């Protein structure tokens, strides 16, 4: 699946998007955050405080317990500050 | 019920006028325009990042909720991204209805929900050349959005 990152999540990870291929046991958004955090310091820094992370699956907001199954795109970003 | 996410500035008066053009059933138009403040002279510019595709989709979902709650005849939303300087327009919401109550309430609801749900992020750049970093989300914005579910 494609992963996209915005604002300081993008800056900490050091890229705007990438293809990821998590193993089957990574079933939910929260699982994926844990799996990505183990990659390196940048990911760990981006995801260090789960309360400040928002996620979207196929461009719709989801909660951490949302299932990844079938989604083509996941996005991680901080709380929104538009308007 | 048009939604635009764009880099360019917009003519809020012309956009609001277009909502009533050629029709006589509109009794009320409410237009809100959000502007970039200079923060007492300290702010040089805002950089607004967005999630292309989702920004439009999420605003459309917020619009559907507004239409479920109020009888709207017309609606126009524009949200800019990119560099925006103090005094420039960032966002506009215009609502048209038969009566003012629906137009006022829907405009406020749309702004409250857009602020907390539409995927935009502001970064502040100061006049002294330093970056203030990413603007933090405010609990007061969450509270403003939550009151519609009270």
Described by strand count, sense and barrel closure, the largest sheet of chain B is:
4 strands, mixed
CATH structural fold name of chain B = Aldehyde Oxidoreductase, domain 3
Report the oligomer: heterodimer
CATH classification, class level of chain A = Alpha Beta
Unreliable segments of chain A (pLDDT under 50, ≥5 consecutive)? none
Tell me the radius of gyration of chain A: 12 Å
**What CATH architecture label of chain B applies?**
Alpha-Beta Complex
Beta-strand residue percentage of chain A: 15-25%
Task: Write down the overall mean pLDDT of chain A.
Answer: 96
Number of helices of chain A: 3
| Class per helix and strand makeup of chain B | alpha+beta
Description:
The complex is a heterodimer of chains A (83) and B (150). Chain A is of the alpha+beta class and 83 residues long. Chain A has one domain (2-77): Beta-grasp domain (Ubiquitin-like (UB roll), Roll). In chain A, 27% of the residues lie in helices and 23% in strands. Chain A has helices at residues 7-13, 29-37, 41-46; strands spanning 2-5, 17-19, 54-57, 60-62, 73-77. In chain A, a hairpin with a 2-residue loop joins strand 3 and strand 4 (60-62). The mean pLDDT of chain A is 96. By secondary structure, chain B is an alpha+beta fold. Chain B has one domain (2-149): Molybdopterin biosynthesis MoaE subunit (Aldehyde Oxidoreductase, domain 3), CATH 3.90.1170. Chain B is built from 4 helices and 8 strands, in the order βαββαβββαββα. Chain B has helices at 12-18, 54-69, 100-117, 139-146; strands spanning 2-6, 28-35, 43-50, 72-80, 82-84, 89-97, 120-126, 131-134. In chain B, the strands form 2 sheets. Chain B has a 4-stranded mixed β-sheet, with helices on both faces. Chain B has a 4-stranded antiparallel β-sheet with strand order 5-3-7-8, with no helix packed on it. Chain B starts with a strand and ends with a helix.
């Amino acid at each position: 699946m494609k992963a996209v990152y915005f604002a300081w999540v993008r800056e900490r990870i050091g890229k705007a998007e990438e293809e990821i291929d998590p193993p089957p046991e990574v079933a939910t958004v929260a699982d994926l955050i844990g799996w990505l955090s183990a990659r390196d310091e940048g990911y760990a820094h981006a995801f260090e405080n789960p309360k400040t992370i928002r996620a979207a699956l196929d461009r719709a907001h989801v909660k951490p317990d949302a299932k990844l199954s079938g989604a083509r795109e996941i996005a991680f970003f901080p709380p929104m500050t538009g308007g | 019920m048009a939604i635009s996410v764009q880099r360019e500035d917009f003519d809020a008066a012309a956009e609001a006028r277009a909502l009533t053009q050629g029709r006589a059933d509109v009794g009320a138009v409410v237009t809100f325009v959000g502007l970039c403040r200079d923060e007492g002279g300290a702010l040089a510019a805002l950089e607004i990042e967005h999630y292309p595709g989702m920004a439009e989709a999420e605003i459309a979902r917020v619009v559907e909720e507004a239409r479920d709650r109020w009888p709207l005849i017309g609606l126009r939303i524009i949200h800019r991204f990119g560099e925006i300087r103090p005094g420039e327009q960032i966002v506009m919401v215009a609502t048209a209805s038969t009566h003012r109550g629906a137009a006022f309430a829907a405009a406020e609801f749309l702004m409250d929900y857009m602020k907390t749900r539409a995927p935009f992020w502001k970064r502040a750049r100061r006049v002294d050349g330093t970056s203030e970093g990413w603007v933090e989300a405010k609990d007061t914005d969450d509270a403003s959005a939550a009151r519609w579910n009270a």
